[in-house]
């Protein structure tokens, strides 16, 4: 058995990978669901085992095909990506069992198993991006996850889902291609694709201009993927029209994994010292993040659709993460990394709960949700709690992030930034309040009178994440502890 | 380092910009995918061209040959081509479904229909 | 076109040779240009050729949809399976060297099966794409 434990990095990616074709081969809806649940739980177990092992023994390196790095592809687990692996597989492990009833209600029966196969592929891609130590391998996994994401979005009920999937496909492909151009330039300058080796060899490169081009291409490419403020156009439609469980899974994982790639490139590959001192990167990223935080929150306030409102809120929350990156000190990076987890869990909870509302009410526009607080008390209460975490009320996970962001801003001496962070949180109060007003303070809509609470399995798994978003507000030993270690690792690599 | 000696880069950049321009400027969904294809093709050239060694042969060790072209870019681009094919197939499949749902593949008309539906 | 006797006869003569050529490309991949990817596309092309001459319904009978879908899945499974066998035999994932008594033979065996997997999946995917696009237009014409 100890032999198998050495292969955990490979199994982390391979198990979801082989379950996708198995699902297609068997073609049974129930089998598809059971296998997806099993695989996502095993993935979570593997991710936790890897996280523990990294804590004990340091970096784990796994050579695919026994080709030693940097020649072969290396899977490399360190404090940062072990953390992201846990996040991705945790969300998958909650979303997969939730999905059965939700998918049965939203998709034709003969398409269900295909959606589960796509879900497994998407999980493979996201875990692969995170675990691999090879920049071209990142591209391959990025496309595996993206292509399966496009399919899952296109499976949404309304025809607008098709247009949303098409738009995302075009923008996502441009983003991925920009990324390949960037790593192509890096490869031309260094002759290697291994992340650790790349970082080593870049120090000796004298000709700086191709590196700057590569840096720009990678920033824009990954920026498209993670919905950095002006490049977020694909996100609201994609989140609004995708099936509920897909929205929950994507909002909690896909953009987060892209942020991880950005962190990897900025700090491990390029090294913060060269980039952030010689270039206006930090200022540009700071400006975009501030613009994103404020504008996207403002736009969210004026949406009529619950799902769309929280999609815009995602754009502003991602801006908090990039804000932490732009500050580039230990508190800022800790805030970014911890917000990957906090926002992932909070937004996952919100979209899972909205999936329950969609099941009962059909549409999730505000005029149909009046009085939902009495009809679906647990769902509404969960949404309010997660909303508080989005705002950053003390006692919720969101507060922890805001705290570290403020500390980081003060460290840099950006007092105005503290005001902006508080201001954008106040805008978040406005849009969460809109839901409270509709749910609790409005007369019940006749059309929603007879509809009760969502099925227990859906509600239960959604509440797992809601409780998670409270738990990480109190006990931060895992979330902040892991994030701080990862931040130290990134900044250490930069020196 | 004359301009002419790097002509493969000029071709690459031309294809890159042309492809991206088509994606942005054309309203027809199929034409957008064509532009996307051209854009991706430029990357294939970016990788492949520097891998070739003038006078070099295929990287199979044999007597009489001393210079070999770099096979790694070819392998990488083979993967990228497969990804490109998959993207194109999926994109076209979505366009077919859009055509069935909206009766058009012009972006302007689709957005117009969506707007009318909202109102 | 389905009534044209010249096309039908030529097609029937050509298709076996196309398939044979696909096998040649597949197995010669060890020594020269070729391999599973190209072979898979040639196999798919020969069946698309059949469909153009004899029509889609006849092709659907010859190569039913469920076989195509299983091909898509099983090729990936063969590929991933080779990797897992590597783990079972004491190597790393996708380690070819442990598959046989010495590394060179092991490598041959590993690449052979990986290429089989690639060929099966590629021809499956190509046919699936063809069926989906061709089938759709036909539905619209009839309806």
TrEMBL record, chain A:
<dbReference type="InterPro" id="IPR050586">
    <property type="entry name" value="CPA3_Na-H_Antiporter_D"/>
</dbReference>
<feature type="transmembrane region" description="Helical">
    <location>
        <begin position="80"/>
        <end position="101"/>
    </location>
</feature>
<keyword id="KW-1003">Cell membrane</keyword>
<dbReference type="Pfam" id="PF00361">
    <property type="entry name" value="Proton_antipo_M"/>
</dbReference>
<keyword id="KW-0812">Transmembrane</keyword>
<comment type="similarity">
    <text>Belongs to the CPA3 antiporters (TC 2.A.63) subunit D family.</text>
</comment>
<feature type="transmembrane region" description="Helical">
    <location>
        <begin position="283"/>
        <end position="302"/>
    </location>
</feature>
<feature type="transmembrane region" description="Helical">
    <location>
        <begin position="454"/>
        <end position="474"/>
    </location>
</feature>
<dbReference type="GO" id="GO:0008137">
    <property type="term" value="F:NADH dehydrogenase (ubiquinone) activity"/>
</dbReference>
<feature type="domain" description="NADH:quinone oxidoreductase/Mrp antiporter transmembrane">
    <location>
        <begin position="133"/>
        <end position="427"/>
    </location>
</feature>
<dbReference type="InterPro" id="IPR001750">
    <property type="entry name" value="ND/Mrp_TM"/>
</dbReference>
<feature type="transmembrane region" description="Helical">
    <location>
        <begin position="168"/>
        <end position="188"/>
    </location>
</feature>
<keyword id="KW-1133">Transmembrane helix</keyword>
<feature type="transmembrane region" description="Helical">
    <location>
        <begin position="241"/>
        <end position="263"/>
    </location>
</feature>
<dbReference type="GO" id="GO:0005886">
    <property type="term" value="C:plasma membrane"/>
</dbReference>
From TrEMBL, chain B:
<dbReference type="Pfam" id="PF00420">
    <property type="entry name" value="Oxidored_q2"/>
</dbReference>
<protein>
    <submittedName>
        <fullName>Cation:proton antiporter subunit C</fullName>
    </submittedName>
</protein>
<dbReference type="GO" id="GO:0005886">
    <property type="term" value="C:plasma membrane"/>
</dbReference>
<feature type="transmembrane region" description="Helical">
    <location>
        <begin position="6"/>
        <end position="24"/>
    </location>
</feature>
<keyword id="KW-0472">Membrane</keyword>
<comment type="similarity">
    <text>Belongs to the CPA3 antiporters (TC 2.A.63) subunit C family.</text>
</comment>
<keyword id="KW-1003">Cell membrane</keyword>
<dbReference type="InterPro" id="IPR039428">
    <property type="entry name" value="NUOK/Mnh_C1-like"/>
</dbReference>
<keyword id="KW-0812">Transmembrane</keyword>
<dbReference type="InterPro" id="IPR050601">
    <property type="entry name" value="CPA3_antiporter_subunitC"/>
</dbReference>
<feature type="transmembrane region" description="Helical">
    <location>
        <begin position="74"/>
        <end position="96"/>
    </location>
</feature>
<keyword id="KW-1133">Transmembrane helix</keyword>
<feature type="transmembrane region" description="Helical">
    <location>
        <begin position="44"/>
        <end position="68"/>
    </location>
</feature>
UniProtKB/TrEMBL annotation, chain C:
<keyword id="KW-0812">Transmembrane</keyword>
<feature type="transmembrane region" description="Helical">
    <location>
        <begin position="71"/>
        <end position="91"/>
    </location>
</feature>
<feature type="transmembrane region" description="Helical">
    <location>
        <begin position="5"/>
        <end position="25"/>
    </location>
</feature>
<dbReference type="Pfam" id="PF04039">
    <property type="entry name" value="MnhB"/>
</dbReference>
<comment type="similarity">
    <text>Belongs to the CPA3 antiporters (TC 2.A.63) subunit B family.</text>
</comment>
<protein>
    <submittedName>
        <fullName>Na(+)/H(+) antiporter subunit B</fullName>
    </submittedName>
</protein>
<feature type="transmembrane region" description="Helical">
    <location>
        <begin position="37"/>
        <end position="59"/>
    </location>
</feature>
<keyword id="KW-0472">Membrane</keyword>
<keyword id="KW-1133">Transmembrane helix</keyword>
<keyword id="KW-1003">Cell membrane</keyword>
<dbReference type="GO" id="GO:0005886">
    <property type="term" value="C:plasma membrane"/>
</dbReference>
<feature type="domain" description="Na+/H+ antiporter MnhB subunit-related protein">
    <location>
        <begin position="6"/>
        <end position="127"/>
    </location>
</feature>
<dbReference type="InterPro" id="IPR050622">
    <property type="entry name" value="CPA3_antiporter_subunitB"/>
</dbReference>
<dbReference type="InterPro" id="IPR007182">
    <property type="entry name" value="MnhB"/>
</dbReference>
<feature type="transmembrane region" description="Helical">
    <location>
        <begin position="111"/>
        <end position="134"/>
    </location>
</feature>
């Amino acid at each position: 058995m100890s032999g198998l434990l050495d292969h955990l990095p490979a199994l982390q990616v391979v198990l979801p990978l082989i379950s996708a074709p198995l699902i297609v081969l068997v073609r049974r809806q129930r089998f598809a669901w059971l296998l997806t649940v099993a695989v996502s739980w095993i993935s979570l177990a593997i991710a936790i085992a890897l996280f523990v092992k990294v804590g004990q023994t340091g970096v784990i390196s796994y050579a695919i095909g026994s080709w030693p790095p940097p020649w072969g592809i290396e899977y490399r687990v360190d404090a940062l990506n072990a953390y992201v692996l846990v996040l991705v597989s945790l969300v998958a492990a909650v979303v997969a069992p939730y999905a059965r009833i939700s998918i049965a209600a939203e998709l034709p029966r003969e398409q269900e198993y295909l959606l589960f196969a796509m879900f497994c592929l998407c999980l493979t891609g996201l875990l692969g991006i995170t675990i691999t130590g090879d920049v071209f391998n990142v591209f391959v996994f990025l496309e595996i996850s993206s292509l399966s994401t496009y399919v899952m979005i296109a499976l949404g009920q309304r025809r607008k889902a098709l247009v949303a999937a098409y738009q995302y496909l075009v923008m996502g492909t441009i983003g991925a291609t920009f990324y390949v151009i960037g790593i192509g330039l890096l490869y031309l300058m260094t002759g290697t694709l291994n992340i650790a080796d790349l970082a080593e060899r870049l120090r000796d490169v004298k000709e700086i201009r191709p590196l700057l081009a590569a840096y720009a291409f990678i920033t824009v490419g990954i920026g498209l993927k993670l919905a950095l403020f002006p490049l977020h156009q694909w996100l609201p439609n994609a989140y609004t029209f995708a099936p509920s469980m897909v929205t929950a899974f994507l909002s909690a994982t896909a953009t987060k994994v892209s942020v991880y790639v950005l962190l990897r490139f900025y700090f491990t590959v390029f090294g913060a010292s060269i980039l952030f001192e010689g270039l206006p990167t930090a200022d540009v990223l700071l400006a975009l993040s501030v613009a994103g935080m404020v504008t996207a929150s403002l736009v969210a306030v004026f949406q009529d659709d619950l799902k769309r409102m929280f999609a815009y809120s995602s754009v502003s929350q991602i801006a908090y993460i990039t804000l932490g990156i732009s500050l580039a000190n230990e508190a800022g990076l800790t805030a970014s990394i911890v917000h990957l987890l906090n926002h992932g869990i909070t937004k996952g909870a919100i979209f899972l709960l909205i999936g329950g509302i969609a099941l009962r009410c059909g549409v999730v526009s505000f005029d149909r949700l009046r009085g939902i607080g009495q009809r679906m008390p647990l769902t509404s209460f969960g949404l309010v709690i997660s909303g508080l975490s989005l705002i950053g009320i003390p006692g919720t996970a969101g507060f922890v992030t805001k705290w570290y962001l403020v500390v980081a801003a003060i460290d840099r001496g950006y007092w105005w930034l503290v005001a902006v962070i508080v201001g954008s949180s106040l805008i978040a109060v406005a849009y969460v309040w809109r839901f409270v007003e509709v749910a609790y303070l409005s007369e019940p809509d006749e059309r929603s009178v007879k509809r009760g609470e969502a099925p227990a399995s859906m509600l239960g798994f959604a509440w797992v994440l809601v409780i998670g978003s409270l738990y990480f507000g109190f006990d931060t030993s895992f979330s902040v502890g892991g994030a701080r270690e990862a931040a130290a690792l990134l900044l250490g690599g930069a020196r | 380092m004359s301009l002419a000696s790097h002509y493969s880069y000029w071709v690459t950049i031309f294809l890159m910009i042309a492809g991206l321009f088509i994606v942005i400027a054309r309203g027809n969904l199929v034409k957008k995918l064509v532009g996307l294809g051209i854009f991706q093709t430029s990357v294939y050239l970016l990788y492949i061209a520097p891998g070739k060694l003038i006078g070099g042969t295929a990287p199979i060790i044999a007597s009489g040959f001393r210079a070999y072209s770099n096979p790694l870019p070819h392998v990488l681009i083979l993967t990228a081509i497969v990804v490109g094919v998959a993207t194109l197939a999926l994109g076209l499949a979505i366009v077919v479904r859009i055509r069935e749902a909206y009766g058009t593949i012009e972006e302007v008309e689709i957005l117009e229909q969506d707007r009318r539906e909202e109102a | 076109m389905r009534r044209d006797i010249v096309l039908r006869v030529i097609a029937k003569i050509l298709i076996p040779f196309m398939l044979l050529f696909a096998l040649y490309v597949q197995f010669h991949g060890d020594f020269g240009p070729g391999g599973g990817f190209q072979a898979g596309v040639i196999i798919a092309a020969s069946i698309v050729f059949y469909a153009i001459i004899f029509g889609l319904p006849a092709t659907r009978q010859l190569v039913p949809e469920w076989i195509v879908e299983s091909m898509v899945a099983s090729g990936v499974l063969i590929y991933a399976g080779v990797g897992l066998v590597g783990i079972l035999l004491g190597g790393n994932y996708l380690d070819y060297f442990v598959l046989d008594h010495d590394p060179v033979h092991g490598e041959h065996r590993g690449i052979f099966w990986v290429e089989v997997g690639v060929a099966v999946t590629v021809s499956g995917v190509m046919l699936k794409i063809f069926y989906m696009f061709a089938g759709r237009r036909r539905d619209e014409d009839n309806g």
